[in-house]
Amino acid sequence: QHLDVKRKSKSNDYFHVAMGLQGAPGRDLILTSSVLALIATRTVDQVLFYRFNYEYAYFTWYFSALILPLGYLIITWPLVWYLMLKTSVITKQMTSFPKYRLAIMGILDTLFNLASTFPVQHIGGNLANVLSQTVLPLNMLFGFFFLRMRFRWNHYLGALLVIGGVIIKMSPNLGHDNSSVGWVFFYIFAQLFNAASNTYKEIGLKDANLNEFYANAWIGFFQLICGFLTCWTLALGPFVDPHPAVTSGPAISEFLENANNCFLGQDVVITHGFSGNCTGDLQSPRALPDGCHVSCSSDGAPVFLFMAYIVFNVAFNQLMLVVFKRGSSVLFVVSNAVRLPLVAALNAWTLVAGPAQQPFLWQDGVALVVLVIALGVYYLRDEIKPPTAARAPEKQPLLADGAPSIA
Q1: What pTM was computed for the model?
Q2: With pLDDT > 90 as the criterion, what percentage of the chain qualifies?
Q3: Which tens digits make up the pLDDT trace of 124-154?
């Protein structure tokens, strides 16, 4: 009878560890709740992102480089200032955290956003969504070398299940996709910046007592600065398609004016770089003698959709840092993979996806089951990590003042 009690106790302990309710400090109820909330917010965030890009397709650089980080700052900085002035939540120790580390995080995020946005026009959103999961093996590789993490059998099995779920999700397109191979590899290359950003954030924030809103506010600030510095991409036709390349002062002025007007729901006319035909079939463009007429109000003003999107985006970014601090960057990537079929399910709902609506296939349902199992398997046991003292910021070659950075 005593042995039965011990067996039951051990079984219950194993169940609690598997569910994230007990065990190592990184596997607690807060982490479990954060992972589930992260999956939910990221799913809605992604669907609204695709819908916004569908409606605002001619001005994607303006959205990703300027509107998104600016909107993020408008939400986060007032809250940060309130916490600094009216509460003791953000301490002097937090404000003394080296800003260059947050700048590196912002730079890596901007490089990833930039490099992953270019190929989408050429490979399509669905394929891009699937290819984004190639970040998992890269993240595990970076974690192995830079975080000195070691993985157990369940982590490798979870990673294999993620790859299997991705292949199932891709299966309808296998053998039928005419996408440029070069753009596919370029999108996979972009995941290097994604994995680097994830790893650097875990290194910089894991043992740092830093408020998530404060960290994200500064990261967003540096993203806005970097966004301005990427304006040269407007002159590269493939990177702004379906909009013509912006190569002159008058063209830049027209682009900025049209981008603002379209964001507010006003139809616009593209004249500079117009060659007699409108490219792309988004937003029902019409070629007229005076230029390419683009509709920006057929599904309501994009600004209202953006207001809904930014709420979920801010929530997702806060939860991401919680998972980095309490769990790991690899756990974040595995959790993030579950959104694939969930996004496909919401994309099939016209009320949510709008004009970006696509059918939900049986492969999406099977992939969802496989990816949820992958998350559960990966979550069974912690990664093997070096002692906290060995991982302190001053011991990290990527964070040491005066040492080379990951960027």
Answers
A1: 0.77
A2: 29
A3: 666 677 778 788 888 889 989 988 888 999 8
Q: What is the largest CA-CA distance in the chain?
A: 89
Taking alpha carbons only, the member of 261, 292, 288 closest to residue 278 is: 292
Rg (CA), the chain: 23
- Are the C-beta atoms of residues 82 and 213 closer than 8 Å to each other? no
Helix (H, G, I), strand (E, B) or coil at 223: helix
Contact 104, 218 (CB under 8 A): no
CB 360 within 8 A of CB 366: no
Sequential DSSP letters for 332-376:
HHHHHHTHHHHHHHHHT-HHHHGGG--PPPHHHHHHHHHHHHHHH
Distance (Å, rounded) from C-alpha 176 to C-alpha 149? 39
The separation between the first and the last C-alpha atoms of the chain, rounded to the nearest angstrom, is 59
Sheet containing 291-294, strands listed edge to edge, beginning at the edge strand earlier in sequence: 268-270, 291-294, 286-288
- Which DSSP symbol is given to 235? G
Distance of CA 104 to the CA centre of its chain: 17
34 near 319, Cβ under 8 Å? yes
Which has the minimum average pLDDT: 212-216, 292-296, 399-403? 399-403
Spatial contact of 394 and 36, defined as CB atoms under 8 Å apart: no
Q: Is 7 exposed, middle or buried (0-12, 13-18, 19+ CB in 10 A)?
A: exposed
SS3 labels along 300-332: ECHHHHHHHHHHHHHHHHHHHHHHHHHCCHHHH
Query: Which tens digit of pLDDT belongs to each residue from 219-249?
Result: 999 999 999 999 998 998 877 888 889 999 9
DSSP 3-state helix, strand, coil percentages of the chain (rounded to 5)? 70, 5, 25
